[in-house]
Write a structure and sequence with these properties.
Tetracycline Repressor, domain 2; DNA-binding; mainly alpha; homotetramer; Arc Repressor Mutant, subunit A
Chain lengths: 204, 204, 204, 204
DNA sequence: CATGAATGAGACTTCATTCAT
DNA sequence: CATGAATGAAGTCTCATTCAT
């Protein structure tokens, strides 16, 4: 049943994601990961040079997987309101499907060293930048009104992240489509009361 | 000059906030806190029974201070758009004025034990509930349109929190008034382009 | 109510006997003794230079008190069977009247350092020697038959000590006269069954 | 050659007996035991969960070994005078052969916690009870005269224990047979001088 | 004299990492 | 390659002792 080389690396990563996400970096023992992966403690060191290195690999792997899911090209052609709706729906789906990984990425602040923390900040900046560019383009296209792109980028970024809380903390199971529509509606149309308000959202 | 018991407690708390916020719970040694407070290692144990207990006290003290700043009564009379603008502005000011404390509260997820984590979740829930109630009242008053209050509450909560990132991570110095205005404008009016768009910048 | 100089020394000794006998040397904190004596922690150091020194003083004081009770002169004139009966009875009475002190002296083996242990051994040797001399004299006087005095001395010493166990450990309340009579009967007459056995209870 | 798990446990126990018996529980450092066992400090914790747990294991192991030596069945058939002689001889031999263990068991009063102390008392009671039963049977059989069995049991128990003193404290080397005969002679026949006294014991 | 806040040496214990098998 | 017994650096916490008040 023992899988060959690359399989074992993945086996360890999977075990590490589970245990790290449950207990955090410092409360996780190498032995626990080994037990979860059903291998010997020493074997981990055949694949990862240290605990911190394993943690980094887990995060990197996770983000690689995350980014693979959101390869922005197919979204580029969408109009902005569709774009953020799809972005949000995709994120909710991702969070629901990868709770453990999400928990890890979300709690990545418990960064065990400066280097990793800086790297995490950089990753975050990149995401903000990508959204900012899209915003600029959409303003040009008159899809959205002229706004400070930094602020809007933060708002969108934060709103997407806010889905995590009910999912990973309260362990709720959100309906991706419903929530994506509500959220993007708020962002696109605002919340101010309008006299001749039409029945909102729903069936598009 | 010796024996200002309460003074020394605060001295320790202050040192702990600084070191914990810099290094996180697990990377902080009691000795470092003692050095920062310019006292002996053992002295900390005269005031706090353990490292975890010190951490909890620091968080509790911080939140007490935080809540004292946002005693909601004075905000209640404001119309909703003013309400979130003031809320936002106050938070940015607080973040800027208390970077270290904010860093701690924001990273409180690195909770070193389950009990503290649960308590942190509860605190978060309370904040969400308060905003939710305000939302319900504002819908009744037709200040804002009829929306799922949970969702809106999450969005507001998350967005306010998101302004921590540039401040505590990137160490930027945001202009509270400017950002609060932009932010409340987005939330209130949405971002969609409108033909006859008025010059933005809220009703000020 | 504060007593003058010498009174406070005794106050500390009394508190120390109580706490040491309850918890043993290493499980006793100077603070506990201070609390029991209703004085400040630092005050103990006005009268005793260190914890170990206090312990030694307590033992010395206790033994001085013990020896004062057994000033052997008045026993010298007694015949041997009376001598051990009186010795035994006096010891049981002493144990009952001074349970805490007895507990300390009996557990003095938890000697916190070599020096004190050696001194305790010496004290024990002295007691054995005194009994041995009495034995030699009694053999000369044909009160008792010719026996190895060392052995007999150990037997007597150990048996007297053995009555500590029910008193200080099981907290029983022995009848001194009854036990002393039975005990001396055993030592004097042996336990072997004799055909024409006289009703037992010594020659009284 | 590596991995004889049970062997290493014994190695640690042996080292612990030596160091504990020399220095007592509180004056023994885990590092010393490790050094004596020629292993690393952490290795002890692979076999024993804590210092107190190691101490308990040492005592338990020692008593198990002790009781194995005195499985009373073979002694039951002996007449009482033979019984106590054999009992004493066996004990002296055991004490001489296991000085360090004896020192530990004898000083077990330095019990580091209440639980262990209570257990020690119980063990002691059991030993006293066993002797008491033998006494009752011997009185029935008219091997010994009618005596208070509690007192006699204490006397015998104490006498046996008294051998420890010269052996473990003064480090003397007693001749087991000689001393057992002398002691049992005292117990059986008493010490009172008798006119027609026969030359006692000795050369047999 | 009396005090108790402050101190820091020192002990236990954990756990990432190594390496002989 | 795989293992897990062994290791020891490092961190938390205790408590006898000091000394400024």
């Amino acid at each position: 049943m023992k899988k060959p080389k690359e399989g074992k690396r993945q086996q360890i990563i999977a075990a590490a994601v589970k245990i790290f996400s449950q207990n955090g970096y410092h409360n996780t023992k190498m032995e626990e990961i080994a037990a979860e992966a059903e291998i010997g403690k020493g074997t981990i060191y055949e694949y990862f040079s240290s605990k911190i290195s394993l943690f980094q690999s887990v995060i990197e792997d996770g983000l690689k997987y995350y980014h693979a899911k959101f390869d922005a090209d197919k979204m580029k052609i969408l109009p902005f309101d569709e774009y953020i709706k799809v972005l949000m729906e995709a994120h909710i789906k991702f969070y629901l499907a990868n709770k453990e990984l999400t928990r890890m990425l979300f709690l990545e602040k418990e960064a065990p060293d400066k280097e990793l923390l800086e790297w995490a900040i950089e990753v975050h900046s990149t995401r903000v930048e990508i959204i900012k560019e899209r915003i600029l383009k959409s303003i040009e296209r008159r899809e959205i009104r002229s706004l400070d792109p930094s602020i809007l980028s933060y708002v969108i970024q934060a709103t997407i992240a806010s889905f995590c809380v009910p999912i990973i903390v309260e362990d709720k199971s959100l309906d991706p489509q419903y929530y994506a529509e509500r959220y993007s509606d708020i962002i696109m149309n605002g919340i101010r009361y309008k006299e001749a308000e039409m029945p909102r959202g729903g069936g598009v």
